[in-house]
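# step 3/5: fold
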Amino acid sequence: MGPLHGLRIIEFAGIGPGPMAGMLLADMGAEVIVVERPAALRTLGGGGAMNRGKRSVCLDLKSAQGLDAVKRLVQSADALIEGYRPGVMERLGLGPEVFETSHPRLVYGRVTGWGQTGPLAQTAGHDINYLALTGILSIASRAGQAPTVPATLIGDMAGGAMFLAFGLVCALMEARQSGRGQVVDAAMVDGVGVLSGLVHALRGVGFWGDDPARNFFLHDSPFYDSFECADGRHITLGAIEPPFYAELLKRLGLDDVNPKRQYSFDDWPALRARVAARIREKNRDEWSALMEGSDACFAPVLTLAEAPQHPHQRARGNFVVVDGHLQPSPAPRFSRTAARTPGRSPEPGEDTSELLRELGMNEGNIAAARGN
């Protein structure tokens, strides 16, 4: 049933980090109910991968019946998730102050790009903007090239969804002791800042330099980067520690290179050129056969289609078929209270009547609440 079995979460439908946080909680056994707008019944099919295992209601929040219905749902829940701009929930009559007296234990989760306060709070933004403002985008670049990052993974999902889910669980645990809920303000710009903690720590002690020629993370070293193979595909090397670097040199056949000069920065340009030339002598799968499973800190760059078929991914069951579509499996893993098997995504609003009946609403009010 999962370690969060018994918790009920109300999620106001959105995109990106809110649904992802809800999915993480649902995977761990929480009952997550997504509140959709009536338009969803006309414009959307299934809720997609991030709605797996959830329930769905469609409510017209501008009607008295719809507002009453959603308030009843929130009163029945342990926590709420919303990802609107600051002030939207308040204008709907659903801000945290509405529930302070009637539901003091409610944990109110809010995820935005810029946070609930500050001069940028009301401005639009996306993943790449939050990375830029934290300084993290500046380290995702090569000399002479514009910085680039994987879409949505760092700002939206890591900085937003993960910190929202973590904050909700923390607040739920505290509420069990104090009897009081609280607002969780999960700003993506804040979360990305926390994720950069190691970089700031290394910089503080002088280990992290802003000059790529002296920082192996910044794509100028011969032992920490992605390299093109003979077939145009790529492999990655990450041999930071001396024993692993020595193993890498051995498997590359660079026996004349002194491994003790790994951090002799003046050696890097010429040695990187040699490593790049050596990698281009074989195709990606040939390098995988030679390197994978060793301590050379190696991995091939796989496509999204190839990744689920890799033996390590298959052995760990890291992908699962849900409603006919391949999706990542729940994580992390538990020795005793395993995550539940992901269920299909509900059609928008398919659970509306059942859930509202459970809350004591009659058929006439249910129809009005749905916006029918």
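# step 4/5: annotate
The chain has a mean pLDDT of 91.
# step 5/5: archive (pending)
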